[in-house]
Predict the 3D structure of the following.
Amino acid sequence: MHVDGTEKKWVILSVAMAFAMVGILTAYAINHNIVPPSNVETIDSVSLHLSAEFAEDKLGLRQTEDGSLVVTMVAARYGFYPQDMKVPVGTPITFRIASADVLHGVHTAGTNMNTMVVPGYVSEITTTFPKTGKFPMFCNEYCGLGHDYMWSRLWVVPKDEIKLGDTL
Ligand code: CUA
């Protein structure tokens, strides 16, 4: 079989490019400490509404016994629930998010909060919002025809505007 010299060069070049790209991604991930989520916690997506934590009346901001703040959220076609949520500025908040149906993603524009929400697992992410304001949360994993309309609002407000124990 004859392979033209120029063609051979292109084969070598394209394979080398593929390796170079994987190498760049690997180096970037190592340098920026990008890791897969470490919280592996399973949940039955079908019966979320019956669960102790993700039932409708349990969603939103709450304080745990040790004083830390936790937001429980459900992602479902096509929205995040609760749809409007207030959280305090400058305070570490742990988000626990479960999907009721398919794969979703939560990206809070203008912040570092961004995670996939895989059905069957609880996504957990802890972050601190440094400034107040209204931040849109978008779904960033294609989840169906309404994907583009899947969003909600996060209000980062001064600490004294948060009344714990209330449904926010
Ligand atoms: Cu949910 Cu896209």
Observations:
- Strands lie at 60-63, 69-76, 79-81, 84-88, 92-99, 104-108, 114-117, 122-128, 133-138, 151-157.
